[in-house]
Input
Amino acid sequence: MSEFNVNEIAEKWKDVPGSLIMALHELQEEVGYIPRNEAMKLATAMNISLARIYEVITFYSFFKLEAPGKHKIQVCMGTACYLKGAQSLVDEFKNQLKVDEGCTTSDGNFQLEIVRCVGCCSIAPVVVVGEKVYSKVTPDEVSAIISEYE
Amino acid sequence: MGIIQKDELEKIQGNMAEKENTWIKVGMATCGIAAGADKVYNYLKSEVEKRGLNIEVRTAGCIGNCYAEPLVEVKAGGKQIMYNLVDEEFAGKILDQHIVQGEAVSGSTYVESADLNPGQMRIALRHCGIVDPESIDSYIYNDGYIALRKAITESTPQGVIDEMKASGLRGRGGAGFPTFLKWTFGAKSKGDEKYIICNADEGDPGAYMDRSILEGDPHAVIEGMMLGGYAIGANKGFFYVRAEYPLAIRRLQKAIDECKGYGIIGNKIFGSDFSFDIEIRLGAGAFVCGEETALIASIEGKRGTPSPRPPFPTDSGVFGKPSVINNVETLSNVSAILLKGGEWYGSIGTEKSKGTKVFAVTGKIKNAGLVEIPMGTSLKTVVYDICGGIANGKKYLAVQTGGPSGGVITEDYLDTEISYESLGELGSIMGSGGMIVMDEDDCIVDIAKFYLGFCVDESCGKCSPCRIGGQRMLGILEKITDGHGEIEDIQKLKKICEAMKKASLCGLGQTAPNPVLSTLRYFEREYIDHIEKKSCRAGVCQKLLQYKILLDKCKKCGKCQKNCPVDAIEGDRKSEFVIDQDKCIKCGLCVTSCPFDAVIKE
Amino acid sequence: MINVKIDGIDVQVEEGTTILDAAKKVQVNIPTLCKHPDVTATAACGLCVVKMVGSPKTFRACSTPITKFEDGKEYITRDAELVDIRRTVLELILADHPNECFTCGRNNNCELQKLAAEFGIRDIPFEPKDVDHTDDDDSTCTIKLEPNKCIKCGRCVEVCQNVQDVHALCFMGRGYDTAISPAGENLSLADSPCVRCGQCSAHCPTGAIFEHDDTRAVWDILNDDKYYTTVQIAPAVRIALGEAFGLEPGVNLTKKIYAALRRLGFNAVFDTNYTADVTIMEEGSEFISRFTKGTAPLPLITTCCPAWVDYMEKYACDVMENFSTAKSPQQMMGALIKSYYAENKKIDPAIIKSISIMPCTAKKYEIQRDENMKSVSDIQDVDIVLTTREFSRMIKQAGIDLLTLADEEADSILGQYTGAGTIFGNSGGVMEAALRTAYELITEKELNNVEFQAVRGIEGVKEAVIDIDGISVKVAVASGLGNVHFLLEKIRAWKEAGSNPETIPWHFIEVMACPGGCIAGGGQPYGVQDTKRIKRIEGLYTDDKQSEFRSSHKNPMVQKLYSEYLGAPLSEKSHHLLHTTYTCRVTYKK
Output
């Protein structure tokens, strides 16, 4: 984190037309979310108003305004997953982690998210933790998934 | 090899040919990896090295038979075989028996590669599972970039458009606009700079054709884009890809870099006057960005809100320049069409819907996966012959096509031959290729609510018919599934549907009512049962369920009472146990805790 | 030209004309809530849908241009289906809007209310939404946001970002949760770059943005005998107030306004036009001094407009040295009332309550912007500012029949004004007034034609080279903050290149934040657009033409002020009372 400098991102993108979203992707990749002070620095460095930046980050569900949990648990709620019981997985995760959708556990270790289709419909229902995809998950398997990251 | 010359594609093909006699391929798309393909791949790779076997272990993209992942295909000993459901142990057997002894591994499920995909015709997916998506040479070996070279060195932009016209290819993103016409508009539009954009913002929840193609055959899409760019006079292309597809993005970027290395992307390609550059732009989680004007706004780094048309993107698109937007599947067809001729492609399919279409068949289907079928194939063939019918012996309820913009097709219409026109007549749409199979355990009102919930979440919020209309419709559906529906709610739903269809600015809002209208058209009875009888046929709508204790089966053990988290079960071991319906939260713990199956839900 | 039919009526339009405008040409008004002539159509409300014969689609009339491909086509703007669709859309918008018309800032003046009345909505079939007023934002004490009443038409965002280049308001979130607010979570307007110009409130079709209402405080003061109450009216108020009483824009009601103010109970009625003349004496002298003696850097930039001053302090702090130090006419009046006038009348300034009637919301902020606004001991020079809209309501509350009142005059010694003072209310007016005086003071010759046409009109940027007896003075006039960028960039480039006096882009620059100037200020009667702006401006130039004196330095009462009290322009006393300083400010406080 100490070596990260938002100005480098701005430098890379500021002359590429329409590249705000790309710059925000890189910023979030580095920090995990879009902190307000970094957004302000980016606005200055890219000569874009903060209003434009907030319009974009609050429009796209990918961008986060708050620090994420250490492990992001994404339960896919695409149609195939929904039909195959993704809701019961969400309920189970909520129950076991004691958090609501979109929230982070009090110890900051887990963040529970619902996502719209990760494109793995044939192996539904799907849970993604970090970059690892779990297929054909049943509610019984939820505790095992959680314990992998505790 | 640096920049390659016009005649060097064949040289690469020659070099590759030697390696094509024997190999092992592991299906390594996102879903394959999820199923454990990476472990199998690593195992095979290290074992082959350890044992000093003279065979190359390669990656391939999505093979399509996703239900049988991880998939390993082997060409050795004169046999080419696709092994299903391979784990490390089984992979060991493959090495022992097939590679070393030249015998197919017995006692396993496998298919001779030649017998793969009966009933299908693979054009868009022609290389998926065949080429190594991370090797441009592998693509060139499969006649890659030959069509591009031919077009830019021997043909004209109009020549390319003419072939497309003869092919009859229509946009595979859903709307079905003739590709040649879009390109003609783009070509005629005046501008010092033009863009061609590949829409890879696959948004339909329940469809993954585009992901599979990008992960399995990125070069085909690049080549299609460049041919389109040449046809319309664009020197720059954008890929707009969902950020949720990291593997696709990685492979696409690698493919672009490889092209640059060979000079296939660059200046004066193959010595012609045609120059081209490609940039990837990432989406950031907004379904509406699949809509062309919203996609343009997003590429420009803005909120992805649609704008009125006209002006059409072909006149004024990205940065106000003429822009043609094509879907991934559309573009992946292009080089095949140019190699084999538009007439060949046009001979496939129905009169108005030509060629083939890829569907992601998922849901309650036995063999879920990607299928590519000639237009005109019946739904029944897809569901029952190709995909093995409904899973677990359940009864067919409906097939849903077109995702959140589409509708349902009931059993009565299973013989329908798939085309843009026929699906439209049934109140659904072709869509991008999501095909969700539903069985008797699915509640149609719940499905409508699911799709509408999706559209409400994904509405950009700009125009009031969609923003408020969708939200109020969702409210009504929730009311109905919660058991508080009134019969006039159906009229209200229809009223909002009409206004949304006609007054919404973009396709998302205009089509968001389709799942509701379509289910009302075929299943109005289910809505009425939810409202009047307060009952859900499928037992999905929790709030309409009632748990009951069957007194004749009850042995009065009291376990249900002990397990009930809200003390909703009254009575004691001397009298009888009864569930207080007002207190019951329908958690179902009483059912699972009863040793005598005396608690039922109805 | 393209020929189309609207509801069977032939109409010929230029290519690119929208269906909405084409329909207007043949007396067809298509309903819309989001389209405003001042801003790009956002196509948000969904009410203006029309059909084209032979097409299955519907079109948004507000934003669909008629092109050569539509030649010969016919549009249908009304049929049973369209009326049904519009009604449903309207019902949906109303279902999402609090049913609070009686207590709303826009009651009787609301575009949504008007449409609901026209469509005869008697029942809203859809669930009403929960209303939560905790989100209301009155942090600026000038403009109040009530997000519950927002219909998300986006006019305010268009105005704030694209017309004014302020970017205080933006769209946040998406879908049903879309909201319009400053850029940040729970960020109030006061912590944002807002310059309080109020153009958002002037363009909002509903009661979601309106002026902070101070009428009650003014009533309290008027009812309290311990105060000596004074009032001033700004130039632009006189030609717009009539609109709130059914008159055409541009009708000059100066003398009836004086009468009404007396009836309301003010002890002394003054006119800001008088201190506009004083401003010319100070600012004009400042210009002459910078121009002829080089006492401070050129170009000189006017500072009558508080929104512009705020904007400069936030966005263009680097040109601060170019700002005139002269206070605005309102603040000069405030300072003179509690000093010169109080001394003259032997009234303790502490008991004076100084009210001003302004076309502007930013003026409410100006009175308390810093210590310079307290010239006499530590009391504010101006106590309360009412916008024209609030003032019109006060007159109605008092039951005063404004239009039939007998004309009255303003009070001495701060009431007499010249034509130069009155044109301060429109873009170019300050420049023209300054040039009239500067010419005569520099050349010591009589100016034959006092009308400088080149700086008149509603264009966003006007440039001219004025010949002052052989010396060329390059001037620029900008209105609408979005037009300032062009000027600033040129000045910055010139400074970067070494500030060569030969190549200076302009010597003197006038800026007004609102497009067209104060006549279209954020506190003026609703419904402003260019046709109204032009009429209001005409009203002021007519007032100028009919004035006995047309140059500020000829105002006898101004001459008296200097001879009796201030000495000369830019004197020490002038500096203390009539000049101010500036500071750089952050755009976001959080």
Summary: The interface with chain C takes residues 286, 303, 307-308, 310-311, 456-465, 467-472, 475, 492, 495-496, 498-499, 502-505 of chain B (CB under 8 Å). The mean pLDDT of chain B is 92. The radius of gyration of chain B is 27 Å.
